[in-house]
Design goal:
globular; single chain
Length: 96
């Protein structure tokens, strides 16, 4: 999370951003990591008023600091958007 956040923030004024590739064995938690990072990124608010960041008791301070910096950047640029998921299987390209 630290590397993804710091790389994004370091390049926020660039014309393009680097992507993050998460690899690992089947069932190792890759999708879960990305979904949780999306919730932390946007600080999702739950129906009871708690937020994603408020319910993580042991988030490293360096990551919390980067998330605060991300909030500031989001306020300057109109909000935060996060998207994660798996790539669809490759489709053959046909030419007419």
């Amino acid at each position: 999370m630290q590397k993804i956040l710091s790389t994004f923030l370091r390049n926020q004024n660039q014309t393009s951003q680097r992507g993050a590739w998460v690899s690992g064995f089947y069932g190792s938690g890759k999708s879960h990591l990305l979904k949780m990072l999306c919730h932390l990124w946007q600080d999702t608010e739950f129906p009871d008023g708690a937020t994603a960041r408020s319910i993580v008791p042991e988030l490293p301070e360096e990551v919390r600091s980067l998330l605060r910096e991300l909030d500031t950047a989001g306020k300057r640029s109109g909000g935060l958007l996060a998207a994660a998921g798996t790539l669809p299987p490759a489709q053959p390209i046909t030419f007419a």
